[in-house]
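agent> Task received from the user: take the single chain below, predict its 3D structure, and emit structure tokens. No templates, no multimer pairing.
agent> Plan: (1) validate residues, (2) run structure prediction, (3) serialize to tokens, (4) report one or two observations.
agent> Step 1 OK, no nonstandard residues flagged.
tool_call: predict_structure(input=
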Amino acid sequence: MKVLYITAECKPFSKAGGVGDVAGELPPALKAQGIDIEIVTPWYGQSRFDDFTVDFNNQTESVGIISRPEVGGVPVNFVKNAHYFEGAYGTPYIHSPDIPFRDDILRFSFFSEACLHLIERKKPDIVHINDWLLGYLFGRMEMEGFRQKRVLTVHNIGYQGTISRDVIRGWSIEAIAEHKTIGPLFVDPRSEWNSVNALRLGLELAEQVNTVSPTYAKEISEPEDQSRFFEGAKGLHEITSRLSEEGRLTGITNGFEYSAPPTDKGFDTIISEKAVARAALSADFADPSGMLLGFVGRAVEQKFGLLVEQWDGMSVLEHILDIPGINVAIVATGLPEYEAFIRRVATRPNCSATLAFDRKKATQISLGSDVFLMPSLFEPCGITQMESMSCATPPLVRWTGGLVDTVRPYSEKNGTGFGFGGDSRNAILRNLVTAVREAKNLFDEHPREFSKVQRNGFKQRFLWSEAAARYISKVYAPLFP
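)
tool_result: status=success, residues=481
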């Protein structure tokens, strides 16, 4: 079984988010289990040679292909192009303020066109793409009569690559929109938008679709419901629910690369390291003995929005900071309005904030905090909760998406963390504060039980070898009945 795994980012060469982690870690695990797999990704740098040309948007674009040293035994093929992947475009994703997604739609529809040539060369059995950015490739494969099996992994259904049909007039992808049979699959289901939707195209044409956790697969089969902070499928539920009913949508939890074995000795070592990191972090607070909550993430709605929400006349984060004996350490960067909010609350003596991407401080918080705060609005899988548990730091999460699949309530046998839910907006906000109180009570009043939760989390393992086996049995094998 030969697989061409195509992605916009791949560590260690490029990484903007969790997709880069998965692309750098899943293919080697698949290779170790007998899959003949190669990675294809853009080269975000200078190019000085050409392998072939592509006619795109009424111009002839030169394309270079570089095969670099293998990552975990997997060959990596880089697509190089001066126009779309260099200079201001020399990064995985571009913010287009005037017309959202415009630049990335141009870049990755071009990338899809270039990948057609690689498919012809490599002749894989399966073409496996990631997220909306490669949805165009499935459309072009269908138009050109390519018979490879098609797999799509959805890492975040909130990003769909929607754009007005008026904007793409004269673009190469207009041919997809005008195609008699494929065009209707490219139309955004919200007719009033008069838009095309690359993720819908990928979903419709994929023979197998998976998300990065089982619970998220269920959630994206349901409609959005803002009365309870439920994101659902963000307008694509009719398509995803159909895929689920047809047995073409599954959820597979991501793995994580661990740095220490799950032994008692390893736990004792991490607890010693935690004490040092905690002492350094707690020195910032008026009362260093307070339970330390740590937050590391983007200051955006998904990750930080619930903390900004108002409940009972005050933000949720301020309610948390009002709990006696609580300290909060934050590392975040993101939306200006959220950063301004963080600056304001960080004037409190029990709150510290670093508004920058500070890897050293982020690692210190993951290790040194007593509890890791992760109140995500939604979470396809999540990696920081896995990282915190590997540091013996119990996460406090919203019961959503991959957080349900990776964190067990502290009150259960072998519990690994704390969580909250709710059936309404007010209940969710109230329960978040209550969950912090519960964590603090266990920390203060039941230290031995708290230590068990730490140990359980430290010994918990989400292995890429197990995830790879599920990809093979649940996603790849059904393509060849």
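agent> Step 4: summary for the user.
The chain has two domains: 2-255+465-479, 264-460.
agent> Done.
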